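Section 5.1 Outputs to date
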Amino acid sequence: MNTVRCAWVNSDPLYIAYHDEEWGKPVRDDRKLFELLILEGMQAGLSWYTILKKREHFREAFDQFDPHMIAQYGPEKVEELMQNSGIIRNRLKIQSVITNARIYLEIMEDPESGSFSEYLWSFTGGEPVINNWTHIKEVPASTPVSDAMSKALKKKGMKFVGSTILYAFMQASGMVNDHTVDCLCRQEAAATGQK
């Protein structure tokens, strides 16, 4: 029997493992969500496969995505990152990481938000949105929910948080389950009692 995965997965074991073990599984950890948000922003105009291959370099370059450390970065650190061939050397994207780390800390300190995770998950009512796509062409690039999240984060001052970037983030973090119905991961979810 052939193993069926979502049509976007290539044959690289790294990509297969990402699809099978991470993509679409609900993430509630604040720091992991911050990392995913930053990586999705870095992906803008590129492929996720490119970012995935560089993920360990990103973690090393950005202090394991520690928002407290990143928020302290100054011009010298930006220049150092611009010389790092292991990451995407785009000045606007690098500066956005610093800006977004500062906004992350503001959200974490805001009693109304609860936490970064609670704030982001509030856009889906705290539960994953389960879709039933039969073909990759049916999967949208954005939704009214990602539009609302984008508008809210931009209002707070975050960068590289357009609706399409955020929908990809929601898919990756499991806020949305967009595994197609024939995908083995969708079958496993069904077998364990998830919708």
